[in-house]
Design brief:
Layout (H helix, E strand, L loop, with lengths): L1 E2 L2 E2 L2 E6 L3 H11 L5 E7 L2 H11 L3 E5 L7 H11 L4 E6 L4 H10 L3 E4 L4 H12 L4 E2 L1 H28 L6 H11 L4 H8 L3 H15 L4 H12 L4
Parallel strand pairs: 3-4, 3-5, 5-6, 6-7, 7-8
Antiparallel strand pairs: 1-2
Helix pairs in contact: 2-3, 7-9, 7-10, 8-9
Length: 229
């Protein structure tokens, strides 16, 4: 990034158990004018010590480090240097590690075999405050989000059945979006329907719930789905 002719350098620290990989990443970054490597280590304990000394803008961090793993290193960084961005590097991942990484405050996940252009772009995007998740980690996260939505709809359906209210799958989709205070236009966009079709479904919901006002229907659904304590 260039501001008034001055290059704003992004200071990066590399942490990975594989020295050859570190050298390859440094060689890649050295080709960029706005990014520089200010330190690299292969172990978690040394990473914490170097972090205190260098205080980089971005840390590229191997999830699986000896001595102190990447999750614990990230917890330390985020607690002591909250402005520092952390991008996890991994050759493989699973849902448990991904969730732990997100919970630790990671700003991105990259597979080590991603192409060089994506690698450099991700550093810049993370520096600007974006969360970067690509490849398999992105697919895992997307599937997890879909599963959470599905589970919540199942919960709503079960609570409605207890009250002897039976909805079709599409009506259930719309009821769930009403709980989230979505407008007819937003529901139409979310479900790839016309606004007219959504209005018809909402009218059918009024009939099934014996209500005439949207606010009353939304309030009832919210209380049913998440009753007040």
């Amino acid at each position: 990034m260039v501001l008034q002719g001055v290059i704003d350098l992004i200071n990066v620290m590399l942490i990975d158990k594989n020295r050859l990989f570190l050298e390859a990443v440094q060689s890649l970054i050295d080709q960029e004018e706005d990014i520089q490597v200010i330190g690299m280590v292969t172990k978690g304990k040394a990473a914490i010590e170097l972090m205190d000394e260098k205080q980089p803008d971005i840390v590229l961090l191997d999830l699986h480090l000896p001595q102190i793993d990447g999750i614990k290193v990230t917890h330390y960084i985020k607690e002591k240097y909250p402005e520092t961005k952390v991008i996890f590097l991994t050759s493989e991942t699973n849902e448990e590690m991904l969730m732990k990484g997100i919970a630790s405050g990671a700003d991105g996940f990259l597979l080590k075999n991603c192409d060089s252009e994506s690698f450099i772009r991700s550093i810049r995007e993370t520096y600007r405050g974006e969360v970067v998740i690509s490849g398999l980690p992105a697919r895992i996260l997307a599937n997890r989000v879909l599963q959470l939505i599905y589970d919540r709809k199942v919960l709503l359906k079960e609570k409605l059945l207890i009250n002897d209210i039976r909805l079709t799958n599409r009506e259930l989709d719309i009821a769930y979006l009403l709980i989230r205070n979505a407008t007819n236009k937003e529901i139409a966009q979310e479900l790839y329907l016309s606004e007219g079709t959504v209005k018809n479904y909402v009218s059918e919901l009024y009939r099934k719930f014996n209500m005439k006002r949207r606010a009353d229907l939304v309030s009832y659904l919210r209380d049913l789905y998440c009753p007040p304590q």
